Amino acid sequence: MVVLLVFGQVVGKGRVIQCAAVDSYPVLHKYIQPGDLIVSAIVSQAIFATSPKHFKCQPAGILSEQYALIPQNYQHILALEFAVKEINENPQILPNLTLGFYIYESYMNPRLTYRAALQHISPRNRFVPNYRCDMQDNVEAILEDIETENAEFIHDLLQMYRIPQLNVKGNDYMTKSLKVFSELYEKMMTSTANVIILGGQSCNIIHFRCLILFMQTVYLMPKRKGKVWIVTAHADLKAYGEGKCGDVQIFHGMISVAIHSNELQRFQEFFKSRKPSSAEGDVFLRDFWSHTFHCAFPNSVLGTVNQVNCTGDETLKDLPASEMSMTGHSYSIYNAVYAVAYALNAMHSSKDIQGERRKLSSQQPWQLHHFLGCISFNNSAGDQISFDGNRELIVGFDIISWLTFPNQSVVRLKVGKIPSQELSGQRLQIDEEFMVWHPRFNQVQPLSLCSKNCNPGYRMTKRKREPFCCYDCLQCPEGTISDHHDMPDCFQCSVDHFPNKNQNYCIPKRVSFLSYQEPLGAGFLLVSLSLSLITVLVLGIFIKHHNTPIVKANNRSLTYTLLNSLLLCFLCALLFIGKPGKIMCLLRQTAFGIIFSIAVASVLAKTITVIVAFMATNPGSWMRKWVGKRLSISIVLSCSFIQVGICTIWLLNSPPFPGVDMLSMVEEVVLECNDASPTMFYCVLGYMGLLASVSFQVAFFARKLPDSFNEAKFITFSMLIFCTVWLSFVPAYLSIKGKYMVAVEIFSILASGAALLVCIFSPKCYIIVVRSKLNSRVQLRRKN
């Protein structure tokens, strides 16, 4: 024989009932013939309550005479029987084999549960574990329905024999046993909290209800209603009878999680068609009937003498549909039986194909493991039953709202679901329209908070020495946001976004660069063009009066070189305005560095020329040979060549390129020219500063030379302004971000260039244009 075992527990005290042989259990005769496939079951949670004389099975011990009948769990037996019946009537599953079942009971006693497991590795009529003698049931698979405290050692025991095990309850909700309820009752009932989460095993609600009744009657504590109870998947108000211990209405609106169930085709018909007169061998039906219709059969231990006798003509069809709907537990038993049947069928078929057909009784239980993990089928309700890579059933959960009534009846209402993990992205789904709350809340969703919700833009911070759910709200740190209520931490926006003022969402950064359309860019353009125009006018004046003494003094070629370099400097500022491009980035800093070096070198050459010319007037001076254009040209070319070399190295090794700066500015994405090598940029700037400082020192030395054509004093003042501008540029450039860095550089270019233009050339232009009479050698010498 092949044996299928379902473990479980019931309410009450007693010993295991062992149905050792087929002919000793009449309920099996409807489906089983000698030698057929047998299913043995230990069914959970007070399926029956009766005495040994109602069983035609051999009792292993004495049963108590009184047990609390829990008719809801009678459905578990019917689900098992219904699945077996359907499989036997289906020629596509296990052809030429008939499936049957045994039923065992463990009475919520771990020792008895363990003994029942040992019985299945013992001879049929003797308790001798691990011995093969006499007739023996070969266990093929286990359908487990074990509470937490029993699951571990039962699993370990059966694992040694490599017997396949199927768990017909979810584990996503097992918790540790609750503490003594009486110590918590006052705190829970008097607390301002509106929600109580109750976890534990299946018997905990019984204890809790009885303790509540005890506290109210013995200690005269007032009844406190109106709490929202959230309980684990094991909790089932209907599974423990109505009104047996305490007022069930305290749990009105209770929310629980149950394994997903669905209505099976023909199960309601199968259920409602049962009658005590026609259900031969069903020893549980009479007790279920007595409890359901509040009557008593002759000699039944249930009920009292005051109860009316059951006629047997009562009909289950009159019961409300909610009373007959299939629970998740029964649904799991039904699917588990089918899973084993399909696995056995697949294993049997595979041996047929390979030409190795054997008797099913000669197969080993461990051979079923592979087929259990690979099966997939649709049950009669249309749900797909399959297992994932960990051989765990792919199943979701239902959210159940419990409705209670003054007559202590209970109705379950499905209000939502938790999809299986295979449905990625799916979350808890609740239909708020069907949610029912305690009347105290006037059908408004209750809140249970010791703190106000933290709005977006704030984060939660735990209060010291208070429960974890009590917290304060703090503003998010600068640069971070929180976009939902009650967020534990704030987070930064992506690099191309920035927080809004309230720090509750991110705003895309705007693209920023110094453009001609904005006032700052347009202003620089106007100033640059104006200075360029003035430079052209000055150059034109000097060209027109190139033969006058004041123009010829200090070397006309140097004057023209300086004016042209200043013109290019002013136009060079335009390279810094507009959207950065590849060519613009290559030319921007290098052109500025070279052109300004030429301008400063020209100023240096003009100053040195003044000094050499004065020294050459002394009799017998050897400086006369340096007087002329050769010296000035040499100074300009040599000084400029060094800057050209620096810029060439920069362009060859790490040339500037267009880039995007997303970090410097909070609200802007800055389009910029990345200098690539800041070291080379500061080398260019440093060399230009060196030339300017040398020019300033030389001009300062020559400022008091007695010569009417001496412009050293003007050069001194211009270089003082020039050096001041560029010394201020460095800290300003390093402290400013974004397009304003470019603006600072443009300002420095225009200001330093304008200083050279105004300080050096405005006195000369004044004499040439306004005081033309002074523009003669005689007048200049007379003035001197």
Short description:
The chain is α/β, with parallel strands linked by helices and 784 residues long. It has 19 helices and 26 strands.
Structure, described:
The chain is α/β, with parallel strands linked by helices. It contains 19 helices and 26 strands. Among the domains are: 231 residues, 3-Layer(aba) Sandwich (Rossmann fold), CATH 3.40.50; 51 residues, no CATH class; 265 residues, Rhopdopsin 7-helix transmembrane proteins (Up-down Bundle), CATH 1.20.1070. Strands 8-9-10-15-16-17 form a six-stranded mixed beta sheet, with helices on one face. Strands 1-6-7 form a three-stranded parallel beta sheet, with helices on both faces. Strand 25 and strand 26 form a beta hairpin. The protein is elongated. The N terminus is likely disordered.
Separate helix tally: 19
CATH class of the domain at 519-783: Mainly Alpha
Structural class: alpha/beta
Shape: elongated
Q: In percent, how helical is the residue content? A: 25-40%
CA radius of gyration is: 49 Å
Largest sheet: 6 strands, mixed
**Unreliable residue runs:** 1-69, 173-180
**Could you give the distance between the termini?**
136 Å
Examine the coordinates and then state which fold CATH places here, giving the name of the CATH topology of the domain at 519-783. Rhopdopsin 7-helix transmembrane proteins
Number of strands: 26
Q: What number is the mean pLDDT?
A: 75
Strand content: 5-15%
The CATH superfamily title of the domain at 519-783? Rhodopsin 7-helix transmembrane proteins
Sequence of strands across the biggest β-sheet: 8-9-10-15-16-17
CATH architecture call of the domain at 519-783:
Up-down Bundle
